[in-house]
Amino acid sequence: MENRFAQYGNGRFFFGLILLILGSLFLLDNFGFIYVGHLGRYWPALFILFGIVKLLDYDSARHRGSGIGWIFLGSWLLVSMNGVFDLDFHNSWPILIIGWGVSMLWKAYYRQPQVTIAEEQHHGI
Question: Are residues 18 and 77 in the same domain?
Fold first, then answer.
């Protein structure tokens, strides 16, 4: 039987585990059981780091778009949570819609062409 890490990718498992731990820490902080300090302000930097890793890891332009998306999300969260340029979640949410639109355009532009069975047989693939 195939190893589950090889099947699903150990990067996804690791990133999921990090999110689970962070979410638990923030929930415990909200209930007053622990104090997370500055981690509560700067955790979106992990999304930026994850985006940089994806940028460096993938070789296709379509996958690089995913890394750019993670960097965009992390940057937006950092700016909104820390009030940079007087932006917060209330007045900066349209930036997410713009980013989503850019992401859709990127993926549409770099979409891999679908090869039909007839084309595969014709080209001997």
Answer: no
Query: For residue range 14-28, what is the model confidence (pLDDT) as tens digits?
Result: 778 888 998 899 899
The whole domain housing 71 covers 44-123
Rounded Cα gap, residues 114 and 7, in angstroms: 24
Question: Could you give the CA distance from residue 74 to residue 45 in angstroms, rounded to a whole number?
Answer: 6
Name the pTM for this structure. Answer: 0.63
Residues 80 and 20 occupy one common structural domain: no
3-state SS, one letter per residue, for the chain: CCCHHHHHCHHHHHHHHHHHHHHHHHHHHHCCCCCCCCHHHHCCHHHHHHHHHHHHHCCCHHHHHHHHHHHHHHHHHHHHHHCHHHCCHHHHHHHHHHHHHHHHHHHHHCCCCCCCHHHHHHHCC
| 48 and 74 assigned to the same domain | yes
Residue-wise pLDDT for 32-75, tens only, equals: 898 888 777 888 888 898 888 888 876 666 667 778 888 888 99
